[in-house]
């Protein structure tokens, strides 16, 4: 299923390495499905020898998503405000059918990185998407890499 991604978005992949977190911008405009997203994340993991790998996405400061990949497992995701079009539709494939505007997905995907389910839901419901991702990156330990890529 091809998704047209023409809106303004920020996406970055962060891989945890023995030396710390390494971040790189992610180009999702060519992704046709979630397998393409997972491949992009695996590529970042191989290049940095990192695991886990976390993808942070924010679109037009309207919503954000987090996708996590551990080793050869399937990607898991959390979406702050599900959408049925473009990039949102692509990521929604990971969280299933959810009414537009609702938070959805794996609330525990960042528990071991310092962002528990309660905090994740709070950020999804109450913070601006860019601010939420900055907070998540800081709590998870890759705030400096996130800031470097956002500037």
Automatic annotation (TrEMBL):
It comes from the Bacteria. NCBIfam families: tRNA_deam_assoc. This is tRNA adenosine deaminase-associated protein. It comes from Actinomadura miaoliensis.
